[in-house]
Amino acid sequence: MNRLVTYVQQSWTELRKVVWPSRPSAVRLTIIVVVFALTLAVFIGVVDYIFGQILKQIILKG
Known about the structure:
The protein is mainly alpha-helical. 89% of the residues lie in helices and 0% in strands.
């Protein structure tokens, strides 16, 4: 139990040292991450579709 209390105290101390981003910065970075994730998802979807079509042609001809 003593180790748990020590862990929580140390974690709380470290959290107080964190320099949190400002709200505008957090919003801007969140938008960047969401746009990047959506772009990557679309890219992977397109590549998957293209490879699927190629495989379908190979299987139908074979």
